[in-house]
């Protein structure tokens, strides 16, 4: 497994200055899903056959205002069924895009489905399939869903970087080794080429003195990112769309499914270049791209403190009186694999049971409107980003240590052999998935259903 994106850049300057990536497409109401061709790695390689929403990877950036209603007609021209899930949005259950649970699959070769729901929370969200997603996402099906605050802070540019990786062969074709037991039982399908907004990039053009709101989305099926910005100290202002006190701890870590909103103040001089490094896998740090400053004179000489975003209208769980549960994630290589007889390609377990994709009874039934504290226990030797649908939870503790202030999230990256407690109000009725967002893990057992009734 070669993790150095330079493998593809060996032939030289694949891409010059990246164009501005801000392409809001408000009012986009149709998503057509079909194969497409896209130059992922530069002109000296053939275009890659991908699966795409409206012919592009990532799919169109959907941008609406908090409180608005989104209506999207989906048409599936793929040869396989699919659905669309709106990751992190507190949708009504019927709009959640989970096959067999909230809707029938959108049939291959022309199936349709219309999604419509209100957007209760502002922030950075994304959409992706929830059927065969380990393959469908790896082939390019994902897009950003941006919900703007009614009083969004002033910035010069509001941009999205959708981070994703690909497993390509020497001709820039996607390797079709999906679902192989090696990936499924280890870290998932880690690719060999990392793209930002669907293109392997050398540089990203900025101007001295500008303030950028940079929204990061990890759309990879398995890769975790830990980004640092040489010469810069961007402020983290939201995680998983939920506002946090502006801070910077030297890097921002994003497991699959997770998002971060940064305020990137371009403090360096005109004409300078600065590397953005992904250092999550220690021996394999690489340069994601360079911030490339134009020669223009600085837009401003000093910056205001980072803005603090207004909290979303989330119910506050009553931790003291909450009902408590414990969910144990197990399996994987070097762990207790499910027994041979029952595993059938299922390598992971939730409370001791491997669960085939979208085929199960509720693991927990929660009372509508009640508060819960749930302890997650990761008994495996692997990282798992655990995602709960339909709700936003807050992190109470990690490994027995209280987390203050409480941080809201919809996806929690768990370290190997670790524990965490989350709390939330079960205020959204329906059947909701709780699963690992390493999509190969999800497909091979690490998935459960939580009922709110
Ligand atoms: Cu982003 Cu269940 O998914
Ligand atoms: Cu996992």
Count the helices. How many?
4
- Radius of gyration (CA) equals 21 Å
Helix/strand structural class: mainly beta
* Distinct ligands: CU-O-CU linkage, copper (II) ion
Helix content: under 10%
Structure characterization notes:
By secondary structure, the chain is mainly beta. The chain is built from four helices and 30 strands. A six-stranded mixed beta sheet has the order 10-9-12-17-14-15, with no helix packed on it. A hairpin with a 2-residue loop joins β14 and β15. The structure holds CU-O-CU linkage and copper (II) ion. Residues 85, 87, 128, 130, 257, 387, 389, 433, 435, 437 line the site of CU-O-CU linkage.
Which characteristics define this entry?
single chain, 453 residues, mainly beta, 6-stranded mixed sheet, 4 helices, 30 strands, globular, disordered N terminus, binds CU-O-CU linkage, binds copper (II) ion
Topology:
Layout: E1 30-38, E2 48-53, E3 62-65, E4 69-76, E5 85-87, E6 111-118, E7 123-128, H1 133-138, E8 143-148, E9 157-166, H2 181-185, E10 193-196, E11 203-206, E12 211-218, E13 225-229, E14 235-239, E15 242-247, E16 252-254, E17 259-265, E18 273-278, E19 286-293, E20 323-331, H3 340-343, E21 348-350, E22 364-366, E23 371-378, E24 384-388, E25 393-398, E26 401-409, E27 411-414, E28 418-425, E29 430-436, H4 439-443, E30 447-452
Parallel strand pairs: 1-4, 3-8, 9-12, 11-19, 20-23, 22-30
Antiparallel strand pairs: 1-2, 4-6, 5-7, 7-8, 9-10, 12-17, 13-16, 13-18, 14-15, 14-17, 18-19, 20-21, 23-28, 24-27, 24-29, 25-26, 25-28, 29-30
The structure holds CU-O-CU linkage and copper (II) ion (CU).
């Amino acid at each position: 497994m070669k993790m150095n994106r330079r493998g593809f850049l060996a032939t030289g300057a694949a891409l010059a200055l990246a164009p501005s990536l801000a392409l809001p497409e408000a009012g986009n109401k149709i998503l057509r899903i079909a194969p497409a061709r896209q130059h992922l790695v530069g002109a000296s390689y053939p275009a890659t056959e991908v699966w795409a929403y409206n012919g592009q990877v990532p799919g169109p950036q959907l941008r609406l205002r908090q409180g608005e209603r989104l209506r999207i007609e989906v048409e599936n021209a793929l040869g396989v069924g699919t659905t669309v899930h709106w990751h992190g949005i507190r949708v009504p259950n019927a709009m959640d895009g989970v096959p067999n649970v909230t809707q029938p699959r959108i049939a291959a070769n022309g199936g349709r489905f219309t999604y419509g729901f209100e957007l209760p929370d502002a922030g950075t969200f994304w959409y992706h399939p929830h059927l065969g997603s380990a393959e469908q996402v790896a082939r390019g099906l994902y897009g950003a869903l941006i919900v703007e605050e009614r009083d969004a802070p002033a910035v010069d540019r509001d941009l999205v970087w959708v981070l994703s990786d690909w497993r390509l062969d020497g001709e820039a074709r996607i390797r079709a080794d999906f679902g192989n037991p090696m990936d499924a039982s280890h870290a998932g399908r880690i690719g060999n080429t990392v793209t930002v907004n669907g293109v392997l990039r050398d540089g990203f053009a900025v101007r001295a003195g500008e303030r950028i709101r940079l929204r990061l989305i990890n759309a990879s099926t398995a890769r975790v990112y830990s980004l640092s910005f040489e010469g810069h100290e961007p402020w983290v202002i939201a995680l998983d769309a939920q506002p946090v006190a502006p801070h910077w701890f030297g890097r921002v870590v994003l497991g699959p499914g997770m998002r971060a909103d940064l305020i990137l103040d371009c403090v360096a001089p005109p004409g300078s270049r600065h590397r953005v490094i992904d250092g999550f896998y220690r021996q394999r740090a690489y340069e994601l791209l360079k911030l490339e400053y134009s020669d223009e004179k600085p837009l401003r000489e000093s910056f205001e403190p980072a803005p603090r975003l207004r909290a979303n209208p989330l119910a506050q769980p009553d931790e003291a009186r909450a009902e408590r549960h414990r969910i144990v994630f197990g399996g994987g290589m070097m762990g207790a694999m499910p027994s041979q007889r029952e595993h059938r390609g299922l390598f992971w377990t939730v409370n001791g049971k491997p669960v085939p994709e979208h085929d199960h009874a509720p693991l927990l039934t929660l009372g509508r409107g009640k508060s819960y504290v749930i302890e997650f226990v990761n008994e495996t030797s692997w990282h798992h980003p655990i995602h709960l649908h339909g709700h936003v939870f807050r992190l109470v503790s990690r490994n027995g240590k209280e987390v203050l202030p409480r941080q809201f999230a919809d996806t929690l990256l768990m370290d190997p052999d670790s524990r965490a407690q989350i709390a939330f109000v079960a205020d959204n009725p329906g059947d909701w998935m709780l699963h690992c967002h390493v999509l190969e893990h999800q497909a091979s057992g690490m998935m459960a259903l939580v009922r709110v009734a």
